[in-house]
Structure formats: C-alpha cells, structure tokens
C-alpha cells in the first residue's frame, strides 16, 4: 500500500512544494514468518535558474561548487563532500580546506569532474562560476543552479538563501540570514543621498574600475558612480590612471581587493596601493577619509553574508562622516 503526503512551503519571494513519499513494501510471507521492510524517500520541488526541479530533501552528501552558497551552508551546519578549494577564501574556511575527507574539485577553469563523481553526492550545488558544467554535473547527481542573477544580484541572493533553507529544512535560519541583510541594506540606503562614488578594483597592484564586480552594491543605494557606463575589467591589468580618478574627484571610494582574494604573490594590500598615489592627495575621498575597503576576501566570498557586511560597512562609514 502506498501513502503520499504533500507539504507546501511558502516564502515571501519564493513558492516551493515539497513532497514526502513513504512506501511500505511487504515481504513474501512464509508459513512461519513475515518480514516488513520500509523505505522513506523525500524530495522538494524548487525553482532554479533552469526551471523547476525535484531534488532530494535534506541531502546528506552535498558537493558545493557555487562560492556564493558556502557561508549559508556552513550556517546550516552542512559540511560538503566536495569543494573547489583553490578558489575558496583562505581565511575563514580552514576547517573545510584542510579537511582531506572533503575532496578538492579544483577551479572552475579546469574542474575535475571525476572527483565530483568520486564524492558520490546526493546533490550538487552548481552554477555561477561552474555554470557551463551544469549538464555534465547533472549526469553525476541532481545539479541545481540557484546562483544570484547579475541583473538583480542582491535580491536574488535572498531567493537563493530561501531555496537552500527549503532544501535543508532550515527555513527559520534562512529567514534570520535574510533579515540581517535587509537591515544592513536599509541602513546603508538611508545614509546614501546621491553622493558620488568610485568603485575601485585593486588588481595586479593597479587601480581599475571595479563596477563589473561590485556595482551590485549600488542596487539598493542612492549613489552616483563617477565612471558609470565605462568599461572595467576585473581581470584586466591596465588600470586607470590615478590622475583620471583624481580628476573625477568622487566623494567616496569603495574598494575591492582582488589581489588579496586571489592570493596574488607579492601583492600589496589595497590600502597601501591607495596610500601610494600622490595624485589622490587633494581629492575629497582622501582629505575627508572617505574610502571604504571591503573584506579582503569579498571577491571569493560574494554570498549573502559578504553583502550584509559590506552594506553595514557602508552604513557605518557614511554615518560617521555625517
């Protein structure tokens, strides 16, 4: 006999359905004994970037490839069975990086899909840097892409967190994480009233336009990017001339330290690079001490916790300057 129970989860931004099915299998009966065997299987249906998918509920063996999910998984008490260790923040994730039981998939440039298979995952959290491998990973285990959307990054970080909460039955914890981002975001938004800003990327010891990577921070804020619409390459090595930045004379600068996050050998901290620029001496952001340095590993974190911290830093800096 088969019994089916349907559960429906409702969230402010996401509607998902969860189906738990219990199947009772009656073994063959002999003249003197009977054996009952039961198996329980549960799945949840979620929305992904590739449409609706049915995936295991509370999967035990998780291969986590999307770096934007790492800190939320850790907050849920989930220890992955496989990770792309070379692109993980070297500070804050030592317990995962140094754990030989967690297999190393390598980078998104040359991932070792055989290692993913060897880890025998019940679920693979792919997407983002690993997006192009979704189909191949799907041949190993159910693979989801719930990475945030470049066009609406901050809000879709919240959706990602909600979805993970449903998968792992951690909806209350997910709501707490989202509430922290909402509060920091609202606080930063209240402090920004049209000031000008330069979004900087320190890469290869040079300063470049970092809008391609951290322009997402401006989504909920009222700030004017002084180089809006101008190309910036987070992997470039040309840099902007310091005089060009000084001439734009933004009120504020928000700095991404890609060199620190990527572990570039011999690189100087972003602050040292800025302090060395004589052209910045008379700028508003220098004379008013209005430079905000993001967490050194922001580039490899990029998840909801990193954005919560960034918005809080912006709020605190603007409030102090008021």
Which descriptors would you attach to this protein?
alpha/beta, globular
SSE blueprint:
Elements (H helix, E strand, L loop, with lengths): L1 E9 L4 E12 L9 E13 L2 E6 L5 E3 L5 H6 L6 E2 L10 H4 L5 E2 L8 H6 L4 E3 L8 H5 L4 E2 L8 H15 L3 H21 L3 E9 L2 E4 L1 H4 L8 E3 L16 H7 L3 E6 H5 L7 H6 L8 H4 L3 E3 L4 H4 L2 H18 L1
Parallel strand pairs: 5-8, 6-7, 8-9, 10-12, 10-13, 13-14
Antiparallel strand pairs: 1-2, 2-3, 3-4, 10-11
Helix pairs in contact: 5-6, 6-13
Q: Overview of this structure, please?
A:
The chain has 322 residues and is an alpha/beta fold. 33% of the residues lie in helices and 24% in strands. It is built from 13 helices and 14 strands. Strands 10, 11, 12, 13 and 14 form a 5-stranded mixed sheet that branches. It has a 4-stranded antiparallel sheet with strand order 1-2-3-4, covered by helices on one side. Helix 5 (153-167) runs antiparallel to helix 6 and helix 6 packs parallel to helix 13. The protein is globular.
């Amino acid at each position: 006999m088969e019994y089916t129970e349907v559960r429906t989860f409702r969230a402010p931004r996401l509607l998902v359905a969860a189906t738990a099915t219990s199947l009772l299998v009656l073994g063959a009966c002999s003249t003197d004994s009977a054996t009952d065997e039961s198996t329980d299987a549960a799945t949840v249906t979620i929305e992904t970037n590739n449409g609706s998918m049915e995936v295991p509920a509370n999967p035990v063996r998780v291969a986590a490839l999307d770096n934007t999910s790492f800190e939320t998984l850790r907050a849920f008490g989930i220890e992955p069975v496989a990770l792309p260790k070379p692109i993980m923040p070297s500070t804050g994730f030592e317990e995962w990086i140094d754990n030989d039981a967690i297999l190393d998939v390598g980078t998104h440039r040359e991932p070792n899909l055989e290692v993913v298979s060897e880890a025998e995952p019940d679920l693979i959290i792919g997407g983002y840097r690993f997006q192009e491998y979704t189909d191949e990973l799907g041949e190993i285990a159910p693979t989801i892409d719930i990475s945030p959307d470049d066009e609406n990054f901050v809000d879709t970080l919240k959706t990602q967190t909600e979805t993970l909460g449903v998968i792992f039955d951690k909806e209350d914890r997910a709501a707490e994480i989202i509430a922290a981002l909402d509060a920091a975001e609202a606080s930063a938004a209240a402090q920004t009233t049209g000031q000008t800003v330069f979004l900087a990327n320190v890469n290869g010891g040079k300063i470049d336009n970092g809008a391609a990577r951290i322009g997402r921070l401006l989504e909920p804020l009222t700030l004017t990017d002084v180089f809006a619409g101008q190309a910036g390459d987070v992997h470039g090595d040309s840099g902007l001339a310091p005089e060009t930045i000084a001439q734009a004379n933004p009120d504020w600068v928000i700095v991404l330290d890609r060199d620190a996050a990527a572990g570039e050998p011999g690189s100087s901290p972003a602050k040292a690079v800025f302090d060395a620029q004589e052209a910045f001496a008379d700028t508003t952001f220098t004379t008013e001490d209005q430079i905000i340095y993001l967490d050194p590993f922001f580039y490899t974190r990029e998840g909801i916790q990193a954005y919560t911290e960034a918005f809080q830093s912006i709020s605190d800096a603007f409030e102090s300057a008021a």
